[in-house]
Write a structure and sequence with these properties.
CATH superfamily: Hypothetical protein af1432
Radius of gyration: 19 Å
Structural class: mainly alpha
Largest sheet: none
CATH architecture: Orthogonal Bundle
Oligomer: single chain
Number of helices: 15
Number of strands: 0
CATH topology: Hypothetical protein af1432
Distance between the termini: 45 Å
CATH class: Mainly Alpha
Helix content: 55-70%
Strand content: under 5%
């Protein structure tokens, strides 16, 4: 069989055609995200209105209250129990992030995703850790909005989840195919950019998703893209579709972080462990 006759190549052609035509169709697992997106399109949306939308998704409601009472957002230890005050404390950027967690939960439970489930769940664990790291790095090292950084960290690999959802509809593809894994890694940043652009995300967020696989070599991050790139690089849960061989084949050889930067980051992560753990718990539950 020639390369052009392979199921991976045909799948790639299908995705490329969709991207070139601007036809990024959303699977049902993004329903909760789309509801929140539509509400936030209005610059005049109030916490009261958003809380009513959140209330229509029971799982999202629980997640909002849980994050509002986490150590990261509630250092004073004053819990909130009502959804409106939880929405105010959490903020609109984090509401979007929590809607994504509901969507991912639905995707991971889909029957057709079963062949991809182990690596998809590992990818989600990686995404949650990158979100928590992005929050801490933004808060400790930059003036970038930490909630926006958390959201961007959570969705930095959304292109890969989108591709997995599409691949699950093609039974001729092998979930363990090395070629499919390489295809997912090579295309996930551009697909992620397209998905988030269609969802109406800001240029800063879409650019960060496009650039998160580019190594960050500056002494300290200055942009949202650099924050997420750094979080992605130091996360202990690795992207299961991106082993060292695939990463080097796609990105080229990568120099390690300077020792000083590595030590500083390790110290910040250690000092912020309670914050990070509370974010991971809120996003995972």
């Amino acid at each position: 069989m020639s390369a052009q006759d392979s199921p991976e190549y045909r799948f790639l052609q299908e995705i490329a055609a969709d991207l070139s035509s601007g036809d990024v169709s959303f699977p049902t697992f993004l329903d909760a995200t789309l509801k929140v997106r539509m509400a936030l399109k209005s610059p005049d949306v109030t916490a009261e209105e958003l809380s009513r939308i959140v209330m229509s998704e029971p799982l999202l409601s629980v997640k909002v209250i849980r994050l509002a009472n986490s150590a990261a957002l509630n250092p004073a230890g004053k819990p909130v129990a009502d959804l409106r005050n939880a929405v105010i404390r959490v903020g609109f950027s984090s509401i979007r992030a929590l809607a994504i967690t509901v969507a991912m939960g639905q995707l991971l439970e889909a029957r057709e995703m079963a062949p991809y489930a182990p690596r998809a769940r590992a990818l989600w664990e990686h995404s949650i850790e990158v979100a928590a790291l992005s929050f801490v790095i933004a808060a400790r090292l930059t003036r970038i909005n930490a909630h926006e950084a958390m959201f961007t960290g959570l969705v930095h690999d959304i292109g890969m989840f989108y591709l997995l959802s599409r691949a699950s509809k093609h039974p001729e593809l092998s979930a363990d195919s090395v070629e499919l894994g390489r295809l997912l890694f090579e295309w996930h940043t551009s697909v992620g950019h397209a998905v988030l652009s269609t969802l109406g995300m800001s240029d800063e967020v879409t650019e960060a998703v496009s650039e998160h696989e580019m190594p960050m070599r500056e002494a300290a991050p200055r942009t949202l893209a650099q924050v997420v790139s750094l979080a992605n690089e130091i996360a202990s849960h690795r992207n299961p579709f991106a082993d060292d061989e695939v990463r080097e084949a796609v990105r080229g050889a990568i120099e390690p972080l300077p020792r000083l930067a590595h030590e500083q980051l390790a110290e910040i992560v250690a000092e912020s462990r309670e914050e990070m753990d509370s974010i991971v718990a809120a996003l995972s539950a």
